[in-house]
Amino acid sequence: MKNCILVPIDLAHEANFDLIFSATTTLARRHHAKLHLLSVVPTEISVWPYVPHNFVGEAQKLTESQLEELARLEYADDIHWTSEAVIGPIAQTIVKRAQDLGAGLIAIASHDPKVRDLVLGGTADRVVRRTRASVLVLHHSDCWDWS
Description:
The protein is 41% helix and 22% strand. It has 5 helices and 5 strands.
């Protein structure tokens, strides 16, 4: 899809919401792009001990409704977007959905690195290394104003 931007959103990191929504609004307007918001429910939660039956499926439904509600609040009427929640390994799912959608750009917020991220690599890092799409990694800083 021409001018499709995949926007992975981690609903657990509210601190990145202003950054990701202002940046993708600017990009969508400037490039007449359609945004596809994606939240990935990690498959790893299904192997936790004592997980109730259909916990992952219910988590996916809740995530999808929260993502849609958030997008409705954050994007103006002139921004064209769709949203979905998918169950899977996070980085691989982002890369696969970008390919499936024909997204030319992935706009992903990067969280503050933790020690384990320095050893294993964060999600944004894994996406950059595995995708054929261009990737815009957004960091909180005073160097750029997306508004």
